[in-house]
Amino acid sequence: MPLNQVLTLIQQNTRILTNIELMYSRKDPLGRDICVYLGNDGIRLIFHPITQLLRLIEVDNLSQIVLKYKEKIFSEPGAEVSMDKVDEFFGSTHPGAYDDKQKICVKSWRGLSFCFPTAESANVEVTPGFGPLRSLKFDSATQPRLTKMSIFKGTAVGKNEEVVMPLAAYCGQNRTLLVSCSRKDGRITGVDVLFQTQNGRTSSRINSELELVKVMRTISFGDSVARVLSALGAPSRVFYKSEDKMSIHRGGCKETLSPQPHFFFNYFSMGLVSLFVSFYFFTLH
């Protein structure tokens, strides 16, 4: 799921979803992950900095959430899941990996991992295994309790497997793949936008999902509103600006000195904003 859809869902459910934090790096925005933290629920949504697709979900406050597996509750406030219960629900395929420094045992399955700290459990015995794998021996009264659950794509949290946007998340929107400058005679004349979109044809008779196609469009300075709409489709939002504080850029022509409408086309899912000033077009982002 892309970041813009998550933010839209949060904005549409402000009565239910509160205490939300959006964290990103201003110094290295394309090198560090984007994080949306739902404080009241203890859920952390981590997005890839470039594609802005959800790649990791972390639950770090089990006292605020109910967890189900196959319609059965295995963790709830006041009765957080134990290591034995996790093995009972998901099956124990191999011993967990143990971190001696942090004293944490991590039990992993494909796309899912659970962290159990052992520092507070006095009667826990760690049995050596192959590589980082360890077996824990404990009694029922002191067995470690789950403190964090991670949901991801692939075999391990640390492995950066490519996350692909599912067809169900497109919802008729365009998904930008590449934006580059369009030049003529050594001068920038606009932008070339390569994006994916659904073409209206079903990919198969079974799932009835629409096919994805790659489209290249060129948006040039001076393009009309109709030209931009024809190339990129309808924007996510339209913003209007009545006052022009950048009047120094309007020159001294009679046509530009008269009041002209200013409005923005915000293609939120594509990361593009188009500014129209009467008959002029300009791309801000």
UniProtKB/TrEMBL annotation:
<dbReference type="GO" id="GO:0005802">
    <property type="term" value="C:trans-Golgi network"/>
</dbReference>
<protein>
    <submittedName>
        <fullName>Uncharacterized protein</fullName>
    </submittedName>
</protein>
<keyword id="KW-1133">Transmembrane helix</keyword>
<dbReference type="InterPro" id="IPR039156">
    <property type="entry name" value="PHAF1/BROMI"/>
</dbReference>
<keyword id="KW-0812">Transmembrane</keyword>
<feature type="transmembrane region" description="Helical">
    <location>
        <begin position="263"/>
        <end position="282"/>
    </location>
</feature>
<keyword id="KW-0472">Membrane</keyword>
<dbReference type="Pfam" id="PF03676">
    <property type="entry name" value="PHAF1"/>
</dbReference>
<comment type="similarity">
    <text>Belongs to the PHAF1 family.</text>
</comment>
<dbReference type="InterPro" id="IPR005373">
    <property type="entry name" value="PHAF1"/>
</dbReference>
<dbReference type="GO" id="GO:0043001">
    <property type="term" value="P:Golgi to plasma membrane protein transport"/>
</dbReference>
